[in-house]
Design goal:
single chain; alpha/beta; Rossmann fold; five-stranded parallel beta sheet; 5 strands
Amino acid sequence: MKSIYLIGFMGSGKSSVSSCLAEHLKWDAKDTDRELEQYYNETIPDIFAKKGEETFRQYESHILQQMPETESVIATGGGIIGKQENREWMKSNGIVVFLQTSWDTIKDRLSEDTARPLWKDPDSTYLLYEHRLPLYEETAHLNIRTDQKSPDEIAEDIISLINPSRNG
């Protein structure tokens, strides 16, 4: 079966859900942000600070295309959908699941997070959230609402949609 790409805004639960979903499916879990940091031997905040967002996005596209195309659950960075080539690549090479999360839930989840370069100003980040929503929707094969759900519940929702025979 094709790999599953989890997309959504920062704080939507992509990393947590990918681990749960991979465990349920007995697949590998991958995270493009972690893979990028390992491959380039730099943290994402350092890449943003030293080389800028454009370089980070180039690195991100490179890593995306190195991900396994079968039997892996891949958590992507929140901005990976900013490039049309990434959106098309994921749609062609996997099942894309949008973890749709309300702004209020994202704010609650990230209120104490200091590690995300784009979370410095939540008010301006809201504009980014609004800008990205249509791109997530355009890219996704499936949309899953995540508010008030655990990663395990979200994983079960995804499984029931991609393989109804496993329901129950």
